[in-house]
Automatic annotation (TrEMBL):
Gene3D superfamilies: 2.70.40.10. It comes from Micromonospora echinofusca. Its EC number is 3.5.4.13. This is dCTP deaminase. One of its GO terms (molecular function) is dCTP deaminase activity. InterPro entries: dCTP_deaminase, dUTPase-like_sf, dUTPase_trimeric. It is an enzyme of class 3 (hydrolase). Keywords: Hydrolase, Nucleotide metabolism. It comes from the Bacteria. Pfam families: DCD.
């Protein structure tokens, strides 16, 4: 069952859902808008080896915007700290952003219940597009789980700002032959 915008607001006010800072103007019929923070990460190496911690370059998005070139990829994050220990959040792109040629968070849109922090957005520009700090870039829905809840306690818990991949920390690499 998906929560309506009115119910999201009630659950934020009851502290069952975290959206900080919260702006009631960002509530939609069944979601809440998330805005882009002012920092992006770009991977330094053109080839990513999932067994090795990747190096990144951090860039600030100036107030006048940052041009994303066609076919470029970077990581951004929400300004808002979001999550819930009672509901399952899902991140979706804004249709207006997608129609401008920017894919936002196309994978890992399901946020584990209990994960509280900023959301890292995977930004892939298909067209040249300028992004700005504070622009509404995604939306989050909340779903009521059924069954026993196990809260997330993984490597991205408490994220602040964009977070690079930490796949290199996954234990399964120890069992694979090199």
């Amino acid at each position: 069952m998906i929560l309506t915008g009115h119910e999201i607001r009630r659950r934020v006010e009851a502290n069952d859902i975290v959206v900080t800072p919260f702006d009631a103007a960002h509530i939609n019929p069944n979601s809440v808008d998330l805005t882009l923070d002012d920092t992006i990460l770009r991977y330094r190496d053109p080839v990513i080896d999932p067994r090795v911690e990747p190096e990144v370059i951090e860039e600030k998005i100036p107030a006048e915007g940052l041009l994303l070139e066609p076919m470029s990829f970077c990581l951004g994050s929400s300004r808002e700290i979001v999550g819930s220990t009672r509901y399952v959040p899902m991140v979706h792109a804004k249709s207006s952003t997608a129609r401008a040629g920017l894919f936002v968070h196309v994978t890992a849109d399901l946020i584990d219940i209990g994960s509280i922090g900023t959301v890292t957005f995977q930004l892939f520009a298909t067209l040249a597009l300028r992004v700005y700090p504070g622009m509404r870039i995604a939306q989050m829905t909340f779903w009521k789980p059924q069954g026993e809840i196990t809260l997330y306690d993984g490597k991205y818990q408490g994220s602040t700002g964009p977070r690079k991949s930490m796949i290199h920390r996954d234990r399964h690499w120890e069992t694979l032959t090199r």
